[in-house]
Amino acid sequence: MSWSAKDEDKLIWRLQRHLPLYAHCRPSLLAFLKVRTGNVSIAPRLKITGVFRADCAGGIICKVVLDDGLERQQVFVAPLEDLAIDRRHPIAQEIATRKPRRSRRGKTVGE
C-alpha cells in the first residue's frame, strides 16, 4: 500500500489524539539505545510524546522519552518504523498497514 502525504497527515492527526502512546523498541533502535546509554540490559518502555512528518528523514517521526530508571529522562526522536506499539491499541492496525517493508540494507522494498 502506497501512502500519500495526505494519508500520512491523517495518521499523524490520529496519533496525536492518542498521545502519550507507549511503545517498545525494534531491534535497530534497541541497539542504538544500548550504545547511547551504556546500559546493555535495557529493554525500555518508551513514551511517545509528539508526532510529526519529516519528509527528509523518510516519513513519520516521533518524539520519544526514555525513562531508564535513573534520575533523568532522555528525549530523542525516532522513526515510527523503529517503534512497536501494543497490538491491542486502537491505532496499532493502521500503523502496521502504513509501515513499509524494509530490506536488509535499510531501503524500502521496491525503491
Give an account of the 3D structure:
This protein has a five-stranded antiparallel beta sheet with strand order 4-3-2-1-5. Strand 3 and strand 4 form a beta hairpin. 28% of the residues lie in helices and 29% in strands. With 111 residues, the protein is of the alpha+beta class. It is built from three helices and five strands, in the order αβαββββα. It has one domain. The chain is globular.
Task: Characterize the biggest β-sheet.
Answer: 5 strands, antiparallel
What's the order of the H and E elements? HEHEEEEH
Strand content: 25-35%
Shape: globular
Which residues form runs of ≥5 with pLDDT under 50? 101-111
Main-sheet strand order equals: 4-3-2-1-5
- Head-to-tail CA distance between termini: 14 Å
- What's the oligomerization state? single chain
Helical content band:
25-40%
Question: How many helix segments?
Answer: 3
Number of distinct beta strands: 5
Number of domains: 1
Mean pLDDT: 78
Alpha-beta content class: alpha+beta
Q: What is the rounded Rg?
A: 14 Å
